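Example for tutorial group B:
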């Protein structure tokens, strides 16, 4: 039998709760917020993980007393899931910005001639454009290219590779993609292979930035605590007159993230928000 463990949390404690449950054996989480499910309240997140009853039962007792859990944790029996087909139910063609659209690898969609199409298969990695943080990054890349060009680009925490692919279609000179998850690198490589773009990208499986290289555009769609932790290393990657695009930030975390980078001579150029999520656009 297949089971689903559901944990409803406030957004502030979501990272801590996920970390605790992963340490206890959870294999990963489906993350739902108001941008995905309008029935979920603002500033709340529903974490869902799947497995057998034996794999999940002990997590119920562990999760229930954690700070930030908003209601009793539920463990439900579900029908077997075909994950490939489940993705297709929720991942649909999406026009992201004036010159970018994201389309699943299995879909067809007509777009105007000036719109560049990013085709991705999410596999088990994050990044389809459906989430506000990814959309904010793609829109910022489009605007930055229009205003001054992207130059050389590095994507920290690349997931499916969607941001790097978008940067390439917009005309970036050179693109490096980094993730600490080998599975994400595998998914990104597969998407590049499908598009015939492998030779245009440099992929690295690392748990920290390449601190000996400088880029005109640095983009990091991660989470605020990780952005703060790596503020010095990410700042060092920004070339003179370069830009740093930071997302995965809740609106109430903006000041804390911005303060961490201001000490490294990076200052706000723009702040873009969608719902409870923000993109902090910094420049040197």
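The residue assignment follows.
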């Amino acid at each position: 039998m297949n089971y689903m463990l559901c944990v409803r949390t406030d957004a502030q404690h979501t990272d801590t709760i996920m970390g605790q449950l992963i340490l206890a054996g959870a294999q990963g989480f489906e993350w739902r917020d108001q941008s995905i499910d309008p029935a979920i309240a603002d500033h709340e997140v529903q974490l869902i993980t799947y497995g057998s009853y034996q794999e999940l039962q002990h997590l119920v007792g562990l999760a229930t007393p954690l700070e930030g859990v908003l209601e009793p944790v539920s463990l439900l029996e579900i029908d077997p899931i075909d994950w490939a087909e489940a993705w297709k139910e929720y991942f649909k063609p999406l026009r992201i910005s004036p010159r970018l659209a994201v389309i699943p690898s299995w879909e067809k969609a007509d777009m105007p001639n000036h719109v560049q199409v990013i085709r991705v298969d999410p596999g088990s990695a994050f990044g389809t454009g459906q989430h506000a943080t990814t959309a904010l990054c793609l829109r910022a890349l489009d605007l930055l290219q229009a205003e001054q060009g992207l130059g050389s680009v590095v994507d920290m925490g690349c997931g499916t590779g969607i941001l790097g692919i978008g940067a390439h279609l917009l005309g970036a000179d050179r693109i490096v993609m980094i993730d600490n998850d080998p599975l994400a690198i595998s998914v990104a490589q597969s998407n590049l292979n499908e598009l015939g773009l492998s030779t245009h990208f440099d992929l690295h499986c690392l748990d920290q930035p390449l601190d000996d290289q400088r880029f005109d555009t640095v983009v990091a769609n991660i989470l605020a605590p990780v952005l703060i932790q790596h503020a010095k290393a990410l700042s060092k990657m920004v070339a003179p007159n370069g830009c740093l695009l930071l997302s995965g930030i809740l609106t109430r975390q903006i000041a804390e993230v911005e303060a961490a980078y201001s000490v490294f001579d990076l200052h706000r150029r723009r702040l873009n928000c969608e719902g409870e999520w923000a993109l902090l656009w910094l420049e040197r």
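The domain at 122-283 is CATH 3.40.50.150 (Rossmann fold). Compare this with the pattern of hydrophobic and polar residues in the output above.
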